[in-house]
Specification:
- 19% of the residues lie in helices and 26% in strands.
- The protein has a single domain, classed as Extracellular Endonuclease, subunit A (Extracellular Endonuclease, Chain A, 3-Layer(aba) Sandwich), CATH 3.40.570.10.
- By secondary structure, the protein is an alpha+beta fold.
């Protein structure tokens, strides 16, 4: 009986979801440690390739700090690789400053934590419709999972295939992925979003973006 229990325990451990299933950190030019979350950064794209965070249910949705910090350039990057707030000036109708790894509502339980969400290293150009209408739903879903399960691991992935940029050669992601998992609760769910202008948002539902996690795993 003990051998069976041990076998099941080992099997669960081997099948547990982990960061390396989705992210090859060797492709990161630099991993920016924001203490509360991490960003896998690309010098070429002047933006994130991926990022990961654990959201805790006892912190998300606890406060709602209305005054938002200003966006700031990431001091841990050399100046030539940084994106800047002014790179987005005049692009708001098409491309927004889109929170990528963490949203402001994920960290607004304290001013110090919230400020970490406003580094430009956590920002990628998102189409206005996606940023304001669709991506917000998957962010909200992550916070609800954190509350329901106690915590949730979140991985964000950006792909760059079209070589499109805004000012300062800041690359526009072709698509964004969001992965949520909690091994203790045997939970894993993945989402895919095209980052395009003029997308139809009427009738958009979270379930419309669910994909098979196996389709994007590296192994």
């Amino acid at each position: 009986m003990r051998n069976i229990a041990l076998f099941l325990l080992v099997s669960i451990a081997l099948n547990a979801t982990q960061l390396s299933d989705f992210v090859d950190t060797k492709k990161c030019d630099q991993i920016i440690d924001k203490q509360l979350y991490n960003i896998c950064y690309s010098y070429k794209h002047k933006g994130a390739l991926s990022g990961w965070v654990t959201l805790h249910g006892d912190k998300v949705n606890v406060e709602n700090i209305k005054k938002r910090p200003r966006f700031y350039s990431e001091s841990n990057l050399k100046s030539e690789y940084r994106s800047k707030n002014k790179d987005y000036t005049g692009t708001g109708h098409d491309w927004n400053r889109g929170h990528f790894v963490v949203a402001d509502a994920d960290l607004d339980y304290s001013k110090k934590a919230l400020s970490k969400a406003y580094t430009m290293a956590n920002i990628v150009p998102q189409s206005a419709q996606m940023n304001q209408r669709t991506w917000t739903k998957v962010e909200r879903y992550g916070r609800s999972l954190a509350v329901k399960l106690g915590s949730i691991n979140s991985i964000s992935i950006a792909t760059y295939e079209d070589n499109k940029t805004i000012k300062n050669n800041v690359a526009i992601p072709t698509a964004l992925y969001r992965i949520y998992y909690n091994n203790e609760n045997n939970f894993e769910k993945c989402f895919y979003y095209k980052n395009e202008l003029n997308i139809v948002t009427k009738g958009d539902k979270l379930k419309d973006h669910v994909i098979d996690c196996e389709s994007i795993k590296l192994n």
